[in-house]
Design a protein that fits this description.
Elements lengths: L10 H10 L1 H11 L20 H31 L6 H24 L2 H21 L1
């Protein structure tokens, strides 16, 4: 396949496709497996994971994005806010980004393992957390 995304050197290209060329990303994902789309639900093609190097590389890039994304956004936002002479609580920001990252990774792992009961339980916990947050906020 031409234009194969490689880990880690094509991380920036994945971000570019994700935000500025979603049709290219969708076309690339569909070329790997027809079940995939621009949402990159890679667990839907887990049966091809062992035989498809393109799918493995894309999966590594997505995992890297989930790990690096929230933390880099927090640091970038903190730097911008601090440069505007507004106080930014670094400890709170980093802890929230770390919690968000751990939640992403846990949810992604649950989907990869296809744990249906745990998926339903996590949906209920998420809904209950939102409700409690809205009531007590």
């Amino acid at each position: 396949m031409q234009n194969t995304l490689r880990f880690p050197q094509d991380f920036v290209r994945l971000l570019y496709w994700l935000y500025f060329k979603p049709l290219t990303l969708r076309r690339y994902a569909k070329a790997i497996d027809p079940r995939l789309d621009g949402d990159l639900k890679l667990w839907e093609a887990r049966d091809k994971f062992a035989e498809s190097p393109e799918l493995r590389e894309l999966s590594r890039l997505v995992w890297l994005f989930m790990i690096v994304g929230p933390m880099s956004f927090t640091v970038l936002a903190g730097m911008v806010i601090s440069s505007l002479d507004v106080e930014f609580d670094w400890q709170d920001g980093i802890l929230r980004a770390a919690g968000w990252t751990m939640g992403f990774l846990l949810a992604h792992w649950i989907r990869w393992r296809n744990l249906q009961r745990l998926q339903r339980l996590s949906n209920w916990v998420f809904t209950l957390s939102i409700a409690i947050g809205l009531v007590y906020a």
